TrEMBL record:
Protein name: DUF1330 domain-containing protein
Database matches in Pfam families: DUF1330 (PF07045)
Organism: Streptomyces swartbergensis
Organism classification: Bacteria, Bacillati, Actinomycetota, Actinomycetes, Kitasatosporales
DUF1330 domain location: 3-97
Length: 98
């Protein structure tokens, strides 16, 4: 079964401190949904072409369906409500290759 991944890139964060409430809710929601964080927040990034070096997050799930279910969970939806307006985020759920 192909794994599922959450890929988040944050092109603009106007108030990084306001992300704290989201992070405090999102972390446990991701873990409860079976997600494993693969990239470190603030880790090293080398950007090419139109890439950005701002915050990049990669989370792995055992399946694509599990990744979708974790996003749709009540716990993660509460975290999304806490995501500040001043955050621009490009978020995707993708299916890996077997």
């Amino acid at each position: 079964m192909a794994k599922g991944y959450w890929v988040s890139v944050y092109p603009a964060i106007s108030d990084p401190e306001r992300l704290t409430a989201y992070n405090e809710l999102a972390g446990p929601a991701v873990q409860a949904g079976g997600g494993r964080v693969l990239s470190l927040l603030g880790g090293r990034v080398v950007a090419h072409e139109a890439g950005i070096t701002q915050r990049v997050v990669l989370i792995e799930f055992d399946s694509f369906e599990q990744a979708v279910a974790a996003y749709e969970s009540e716990a993660y939806q509460k975290a999304l409500v806490a995501l500040p307006d001043g955050v621009e985020r490009d978020f995707r759920i993708i299916e890996g290759i077997d």
